[in-house]
Predict the 3D structure of the following.
Amino acid sequence: MTIHLPDCPLCAAQDENILWQDASCRVIRVADPDYPGYCRLIWKSHVAEMSDLTPAEQLHCFKILMGVEVALRECFQPAKINLASLGNMVPHLHWHLIPRYREDRHFPQPIWGSARPEIQASPAPAVDDARLAVAIRNAIAEQLAG
Amino acid sequence: MTIHLPDCPLCAAQDENILWQDASCRVIRVADPDYPGYCRLIWKSHVAEMSDLTPAEQLHCFKILMGVEVALRECFQPAKINLASLGNMVPHLHWHLIPRYREDRHFPQPIWGSARPEIQASPAPAVDDARLAVAIRNAIAEQLAG
């Protein structure tokens, strides 16, 4: 059963840059000039925690997460991938996936920590939506086939 | 093959409060008075990313993560669970699991964001190591059996 709440910003989202989706979740690219590889995996039904999903749904969500991680590593060659499911502000299950670089605005802090004002531009390579979407589609297909 | 690096603080860790472990990973309780339910899942071999693990290892790690999440929800009844795999400072795979409350020191920010100085004490209930360890053991057993 899919639950949608009219007042939830993730249930009611519009104008997202969706790179991939299926019946249960979508992967969007976040418009953050400091982190051009920043993607978000959003579970479509309104649940708060991973452990609110059934075991099969958890596994599906995890495979999508791993597919996006693989695609981000391939496209962005980061120093590190950061994964986080927080949801304190919007308790609707979503994962942040952020390619990180030693020269980015918050390294080695999480992007929610203190910024380094001396960093002006992201060191991430330019990757257009089409190329990233293909990489994500292929990597997710491999995860789901495995 | 298990890799250990002598200079890595997670490979060489001592004096950890280990609540559960198997051949591949350990679950420790972090000594943080602001977040008494804060646990960390540490993969024992020195790898940086989830996608550096084999698919079977990824799935095992994920099931342990979900087991700890279930146990933390049961013991701490938080408003939200925060999960994060960052590793910018120590690129050795580990997951942060943090029970969060509306009245905690950083809510609704991640714990790496700005603290609220007016918050003096954690609102988390008192849960001793023995009780938490039993809850984690039982929840992980259920995950691994599923």
Notes: Helices of chain B lie at 55-76, 129-145. Residues 42 and 94 of chain B are 4 Å apart (CA to CA).
